[in-house]
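#dry-run=false #mode=assembly
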Amino acid sequence: MTDGRHHSEDEPFVEVAETVSVEDEHVADLMSHTIDILALATAVTKQKAADAADTLEDLPDDEAAEVIELMEDQSAADALAEMEVPLAVTIIEDLSEDSRTKYASTLLALLAPDDAVSIIRGLDVEYIEPLFVSMPVGYARKLRQLCDYKEESAAGIMTTDFVSLFKEMTITEVVEVLREKELPEHVQDLPVIDKSDKLVGVVSLRALLIGLSEATVSEIMEHKVAAVHSDTDREQVAREFDRYGYEMLPVVDASDRLLGIITVDDVIDIIEEEQTEDVQKTVGAGAGEAVYSGVGEKLKGRMPWLLVSAVMMLPATYVVLGFESMIKEFALLAVFMPLIAALAGNAGHQALAVTLRGIVLDEVRPDRIFPLIRRELVVGLVTGTAIGSIVALLLWLFGNGALETRLGLIFACAMIVSMGISTLTGAAIPLVMKRIGADPAQASAIFLIMITDAVAFSTLLGFAWLTLQWMQGI
Amino acid sequence: MTDGRHHSEDEPFVEVAETVSVEDEHVADLMSHTIDILALATAVTKQKAADAADTLEDLPDDEAAEVIELMEDQSAADALAEMEVPLAVTIIEDLSEDSRTKYASTLLALLAPDDAVSIIRGLDVEYIEPLFVSMPVGYARKLRQLCDYKEESAAGIMTTDFVSLFKEMTITEVVEVLREKELPEHVQDLPVIDKSDKLVGVVSLRALLIGLSEATVSEIMEHKVAAVHSDTDREQVAREFDRYGYEMLPVVDASDRLLGIITVDDVIDIIEEEQTEDVQKTVGAGAGEAVYSGVGEKLKGRMPWLLVSAVMMLPATYVVLGFESMIKEFALLAVFMPLIAALAGNAGHQALAVTLRGIVLDEVRPDRIFPLIRRELVVGLVTGTAIGSIVALLLWLFGNGALETRLGLIFACAMIVSMGISTLTGAAIPLVMKRIGADPAQASAIFLIMITDAVAFSTLLGFAWLTLQWMQGI
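#status=ok
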C-alpha cells in the first residue's frame, strides 16, 4: 500500500507483500539525510525484524552497535536474530568491549536459544564467559548445554524454547498452560511427554480446539510420532522435512527423552545453505566459504583443489606435448585448441548441471539411468555436429585456401566426437560419484574439465595426425 | 526401530526418522521376489505417501498404473501427489486410455487442488476434457479456474482447499465448523473474511484455543495481515516466506478478495527448484530443463548458449591467431596454453560460485562490495603465485635445459596475472549483472570462460613475445 493511507490498530489492514511499508520508507528517509542515531533507532524499532536487520547491515558496524543499544530490547533482539551471524557477533563483541556486557547478555537471553547459540559459537573465546556470568544462571546453563552439541547435528539446530504437555493433562489444563506461556511461532503440534520426559506423542492445536474440555491429552494425541535423534546430521533432518512435509520434528536422545524441537523455518535456511554449498563444491571452493570469509579461509578451501586441478591437467598437457612437432608445422591447430576445449567443456558442464539437479531433486530413478545417459550423448552429438559444421562452413567460405578448408573438416569431426563424449561424461560423473557413495557435487567440475580437455585435444590433434599426409599434400 | 517390536495403535511409538520402517521392508521384500500386483498394492497402501511414490516410480510405468488402480483411493491419490509430475501424468493418461477415466477423475478430485492442477497442466489436451466431464461439476469448475492462472504466479501455486472464517463468528461457532471440516495440513492460521469475501484478518489456532468461547473472531484476530497478489511471481513469494518466516500467506485479488492460501511446504519445493535452476542457468542450460526432458527440449535450451559460447571464444582464438608464428617457433607454448586456461578458468569459477551464493543468500551488502572484490583479487594473486612457482620449479628441476627454465618463469608470471584477473572477474560478473538488473546467474559461466581464456592466452603469449629475444638467445 503506497497510497499513504494510515490505519488505526483495529481497522483491517491487508499489507500486500511486495510493497515498501511506511516504516521502511521512514527509515530510508532518515538514513539519507541525518545522522540522528536516536531517531533512527526509534524508526528501526518499528520495522519488521528482517527489514531492521537489513538496515543495520547497511550501517557501519560501530553505528549499528549504537543503534542497537538505543532500540527497544525485544526489537533489538529480533533484529539480531535475523541478521547475518558475523555482524551479530561483531555487535555483541562491540557491546562487550564497551563494558555493556550486561546489555549484550540481556539481548542474548531474549533470543530463541538456537539463535543465541549460533551467535555465541561465533564469539571470540574471551567474551563468552563474562556473557554467561551476567545471564540468569538457569538460562546460561541451558545455552552452555546447547553449545556442547555439534553444530551440524539435529541438536545443533533445535530450539529448547518450546511447550510440551504431559499426557495426563486435560484440555482445560492445557488451555491454562497456553494462556500463561507464549507459544513459539510456527508451532501447531505440541510434543507430549510422560513423567520421565520420554516423548510419547504429539497433539495438534486443532485437536485441542475441537476436543471436549474434560478429555485428556493422551486420548486425543497422535501416538505414532516421527522424531530425530540429537546426533542426526542436519542435512538429513532437512531432507526428512522436505520429503514428508513435516512442520515440526521433536529431537530425542538415545532413550527417547525429549530434548527440543526443530521447526520448518530453520530448515528452509539449511536447505538454502546446503544447496548453494553444492555449487561451490563442484568447483572445489570450500563448502563453508562465505562471500565475506577471510582470505586465509578462502585459500585453505580452494588451494588444494586448484593443485588437484593442475595435476589433473597433466593428461591434456601430455596429449599436446605428444603432438609438438605437428603443431610446429600447423600452428593454426593451436588456434582451434581453445575453441574446441571451451565448447566441449561447456557442453559437459550443461550435462553435469542438469544431472546434479536431478540428483538433488531426487528425480534420478535407478532403472532409468541408461536413457538419461543416451539422451545426453545424443544432445552432445547433435550440438557437436551443428557447431562443427558452422565453423567448417565459415572456414571454407572465408578461409585463405585449401589448408583452412581441410582444417575445418578435421575440426568438425573432432567437435562431434568430443562434444558427444563431454555430455556423456558430464552426466556420468555425478552418477558414478553417487554410486560409489561419494558426494556427487564434490569437485565434479574439476574432474569434468580434465576429461573434456584431454578428449578435445586428443580428437583434434589425433584427427589432424591421421590426415597428416592429406594436409601436407597442399 | 529395527528391533522388530510391534506396537498396537494406542501404545506410544516414537519412530526415529532415519530408520527403514516395517512397511518399507515389506514392500522391498515383495518387489524382490514376486509379481503379485495385488499384494504389492496392499503393501504400498500402507507406506507413507512419499515412500509409496518412490516405490511406484521404481516400477515400469504400466505396472505403476496397475498398482495405483488396486490401491485404496485416498492412498493412491496421496502417492500421486508426492510423485514426480511426469510419472503422475503418465499414470492418469494410462488410466484414461484404458477407459478408466472415471477412476482417474476420482483420484484427481481427491488431490489438493494445487496438486491436481499441476498434473492437469502436464496432460495431453485430448485427455483433459473427458476428465473434467466425469468430475463433480463444482470441482471441475474450480480446477478449470485454477488452470487459468499463470503457472509461475502466486495463484498458480495456491490451494483453494482451505477453511476461512467470517469475522462475526463466535469461537463456539468456529469450533463447530472445524469439527465438520478437515483442516489441511500445515495450517495454524485461518484467514478471516467479511461478507464480500474481502480478507480482513487472520486468526491463529492458539488464539482460538485460549480465547473465551463467546468472543468473536474479529475480537481475537490479527488485523494486520500480510498477503500476496494472485499475479505475484512465485519466486518472489518464496522469498517473502523465507525472509519473514511466514507459515501461510493468503492470496488476494486486486480488490483484496481472498482467493486461496499458500503454505510453507509448497514453498520449500519452489526454493529447491529455483536454486537448482540457477546452477543450470550459469552454464546456459535451460532453466526449466529436467534430467528426463526430451532431447528436443534439451537442445532448445542449450544450443543457443553453445553458439553464444562459440562466438565468445573469438577473442581468445584471435589472441592465439596473433601469435601464430611465435607458436611455430616455440611449440611448447601450445602445451602450456591448456594448463593456464584451465587453472584460470577454475579459479574464476570458484570466485563466481562463492559470489553467486552470497547474492542468493542475500549476504552481499552494497557498501561492502569493494572489500569483497579486493579479497578475491588477493586470493587469485596468492594462488597464482603458488601454482606458478611450483610449475616453474618443476620445469627448472626436470626440464631439458635453459628453454624450459625460461618458459617456466614466463609461465609463472602469466599465471599470477591471469589468476588475479580471473578471480576478480568471477566475483565481478554476477555483481555487474545484478547491478544492471539482469539475472546474476544467467550464462555467467560462459561470460567468465570467455574472459579467463582470453586473459590466460594473452598473458602467456604476451609475456613470451615480450621476452622473445631472451628466449631466442639460448
